[in-house]
Amino acid sequence: MAMSSARKGWAAVGLAASVSLVLAACGGDDGDDDTAGGGDTGGGGGDCAFADEYGDELDGTSVTVYSTIVPPEDAPLEASFDTFEECTGMTVVYEGSDEFEAQLPVRIQGGSPPDLAIIPQPGLLATLVNDFDAVIPVPDDARANVEASFDPSWIEYGTVNDTYYGTPFGANVKSFVWYSPSSFEEHGYEVPETWDDMIALSDQIVADGGMPWCAGFGSGDATGWPGTDWVEEVMLRTAGPDVYDQWYKHEIPFNDPQVVTAFDTVGDVLKNDQYVNGGLGDVSSIATTRFEDGGLPILQDQCFMHHQASFYQANWGDGVEVAEDGDVFAFYLPGIDPAQGNPVLGGGEFVAAFTERPEVQAFQTYLSSDHWHAERASKGNFVSANKTVPVDAYDSPVNQLSAEIIQDPEAVFRFDASDLMPAEVGTVAFWTGMVNWITGASTQETVDAIEDAWP
């Protein structure tokens, strides 16, 4: 298959020069699996052969699903459940919330958990297991699906105390900067290939009377998480992947000088009042701007660059073309230290069950299957680490590029560190710390406070 121009652009930044495989979703088994819910990757479309094993045992049952996925990203997700509902007679009751991380433990403690939750942080999954003993281990058939079609690291991420609790759902690439190709062309700007190039471009935009960056940390009870992504990206690019691993495992303290360096490097961009926050306010406005709105000023030339993951494409709105020659597109966030190559930061979600009814186990197994991952890919705005889903099955150039990056055996890929840290650090102190930091707290007092929160 010929490499698309988008993927050529990735190759140009030298990803292939990166060294070891840390997380890849390709190679190995060919995915021809006839375990429960596995096998056919035809994307559904009304083909009910996958559901023959259930007979009529699911007819009339219902399962509740709870996640962080809210409008407009929830529409294709809910559409991906339709085939299972039509073929089995089961009803899926879906609820998305931007207060998910705070509300899920409350629901568990109150005795009314959802049947299934789509959890975006392995650290939160571990907390729910260790603190509440609330998660049901993964059914054997679901584990077989994952072993057949995913890199083994995705089982490691969903394992707590040697027991497997969370099956992989979606995946994403975070190392992107969104921009307007037409605006860049109009102003004579070129996509930067190094961090120094990116800073020089930012300075040029300022000299031309523009504001180079816009950002938003707002996300309900999860406010602050986009800032953690920035720090994680820079930790990979300055300290390197080995130190990054030591950091999220707390083998070095959170206030280690290398972490301070990463914060200060991010501050050179996000705390620079000449660089941000185009179309939205001053530096402090980053804390109150919802992340969904953080990049939209690009469409009005009020800013020119916005760091956000592949899934951000859902927020551009109807009529906005996301393509290399379209209204908006994304380039790779460049490396800083050539010795660290071009690392990739990513994330993903995991499906965990809180009740053990047969219909719940059946649906969790289906969500781990080749069939569902192909079905979900066909609905758009989604990337899977399932290695049976071909790159050209995805609906957009950004998703295709993301899938190829995840599947590249040369990629040095690291999972989002805050998602891997204990929940009281990664999804509480780190998030809160980023808000305090962007609104005036110093780097040192911020990293000291997060270090003090480590259990």
Automatic annotation (TrEMBL):
Cross-referenced Pfam families: SBP_bac_1 (PF01547)
Top-level taxon of the source organism: Bacteria
Matches recorded under InterPro entries: Bact_solute-bd_prot1, SBP
Keyword entries, A-Z: Signal, Transport
Keyword match Phosphoprotein: no
SUPFAM superfamilies hit by this protein: Periplasmic binding protein-like II
Cleaved signal peptide residues: 1-24
Gene3D superfamilies linked: Periplasmic binding protein-like II (3.40.190.10)
Similarity comment: family membership: Belongs to the bacterial solute-binding protein 1 family.
UniProt-recorded name of the protein: Carbohydrate ABC transporter substrate-binding protein, CUT1 family
Organism encoding this protein: Jiangella alba
